Structure formats: C-alpha cells, structure tokens
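Notes taken during the Thursday session

The instructor put the following on the board and asked us to keep it in front of us for the whole hour. The protein is ADP-ribosylglycohydrolase family protein. We were told not to look anything up and to reason only from what is written here. First, the residues (383 in total):
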Amino acid sequence: MIDFQDRVKGVLISTALGDALGAPVEKLSYEEIKKQYGRVNSLHTKWYKEDLSIDESLGKRRGNGIVTDDTLMTLALCNVYEIEKRHLDAYDMANEFAKEIAFRKVYIPEFDRDTILIERLFYPEKHIFLRNVLANCDPREGGYGNMINCGAAMYIAPIGIVNAGNPKGAYDEAISFAMAHQASYGLEAAGVLAACVSKAFEENITIADIVETAIHYAKDGTKIAIQEITDLAQKFKDENATLDDVVDGFHECLEKFSPMKNDVHRKIEKLGIPTNHYTPSRVWSIEELPIALGFIVYNDGEYYKSIYDGINSGRDTDSIGVMIGVILGAMNGTSVIDVEDINTLEGINKLDFNQLANSFSSVAKQIIARDIAVFEEMKKILE
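Then, after some discussion, the predicted structure tokens were revealed:
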C-alpha cells in the first residue's frame, strides 16, 4: 500500500520533472527534436534557444532541471488550499489565487530571482488578473474571452489530490475553480485531468481505470479525442509500433480536434489573418491531455518511458510531461522517481519536496476528513 503523503509527493515531484524535461524543447516539432537532440531523456538538456539573443529568449533560462509556470502555478494552488483549508471555487481564483500570482513574490528559476509570478506568466494566464481583478467581473465568467489552451489543466492536479478517490468531486471542483480562468475545451480538460488524478489515488488502480474515468467525465470534443487517441494507443501498443508511427498517428488523429498542428509560433506576419486557433468550440479539444493519456496507454503506465515519449513528441512538451507525470505520480508515489532527478530539481529550483508534500498533504487530509464526516452524517439520514 502506498502512503497518501508519498502519492502527494509523487504528484508534486512529477509536476516539476515533466515540466523541466519538456521545457528545453517546448514548441519544437517532433522532427525538430529528433534532428537537434536525437532523444531527450535527461534533465541535463540544453535549451534550444540558449544561444539566441536576449530579446529572442526574453531573458529566460531553461534546461538542467529548471521548471516553468506549470510547476509554479501548481505550487501557488497548493498555497491557496493551505490558506483556505477547504474546497475552492471561482471566487477563490479571483481572490487568493490572484494574490498568489500578482502580489506575493516567489523564486522564478527561469529568471533566477524573486519576483511576482505574473511577470513570468503567458498572456492566457495573465487573463486571470485582467478579468478578475482589473475588470472586476463575476469570477464565474472570468474565463470568457480567453485564449483556449491547456493553461488551467497544467496546474490543476492539487484539486485531484484534495478529492482523492472522488473523481466526480474533483471534476466538479476543477470546473468551478478554473472557470474564472478558462472556458470551453480548455476548462473541460482541467476537469478531466483533476478527475484522473483523483482516481489514480485509489489502491490497485489500472491504466484502463484511469482512461475509463477520463472518458466518463469528459464532454464533447474532449471526450471523443480521448477515446480515439487511447484506442489508437492501444492498437500501437499491441502492434509494437515505433515512436515515429505513434507520434504521426496521434497528430493525424488530433487534426480534427486541434487545427494548429506544428504551427504554434506567433509571428508578426500572422497578424490579421483569420484563424480558428484557440477559439471556443464544442467539437475541439486541447492536444496535451489526449496525448498524455495516449502515451500512458502506449507504455502501459511505465513512468519514465511515458514521460520521455510525451516530451519528445513535440509542441507543448512541458505541459504534456506534466500531465503524464501527475497521473503516474499519483498512482506510484515516489518509488518510480530517480533520486538524482529529485536532487537536481530541488537544487536548481530551490524547492523542498519533503516540506511541500508534508504541508499540502496535511491540509488535503483535513479537507477529505471533513468530506467523509459529512458523508457519514448523510448515511445516518437514510438509516
């Protein structure tokens, strides 16, 4: 039996690990990664922008275990739970979470200095502050008008933890909280990933159980995309297909759910050209979650192989790594993670995973214990 606290620690470390492994090659295509790196299978990887000018790299650094906003926003959400010590909703996004990203300084490893997190965030995540603080909207409408992407899903794992073993509760809370940030299939992915993390905390859980949970709670294009990608992944697994075939197959399948393909860079010559990229839709899906589940199925849940294949598949590599990591970290705890990788992540990012896991798991246990007490009282009513 894996201890609850060890599973929590596994989720937090795996967030950082998947993030840091994928960050140096984020936005490169599968073919570009193969050409420049062969295969990324180490935290000690040079960022492909490292030799560019300061303007092109925006003064950031990556590689050698440095984490990005995926990890920092996950830890910010943990902090909100530790402050509130209860389940969260959109108003908490607009209040305490906004304080975490815009007013409380943290160490930003990519900048190698302490500053407010919003200085590092991508525009769709800055939307949280714009809509909920500056525009003073109803938090339940905060996600309206945002670029639809995986920004909410990438940090949603803590909601799966505080609803461990209750995927319906995790899905509902993730939707309620993240609606102040995201909308459409970007919001849907957050709910589904939270449900998967919650399910992964159950004893003797299988990969098939995780996929079934994802498909059960997913709606619209997200549901169909997960069904098709995981079915394809099982076919590739049975055929012992190569990674080339798997990546090509996944990306071809996703074209009807995500029209961007490898066209993920934003350049001045694109401005003014009409596109449906990142717009709301009931028939589309983000790519990251279906791909993450696909590689978990293809590798039968093997921890490092799943993450490595995910980050080498190209495009939004760090978030794909995170989504694979949080599911498998919840399932396995820390036993599957190399100590050297943990030490690297802690050292360069100034993190203490023991302290983080101890603190957050204590709060999560309190929240879950209150839920159980309420359930017991409800049972008495029926007796």
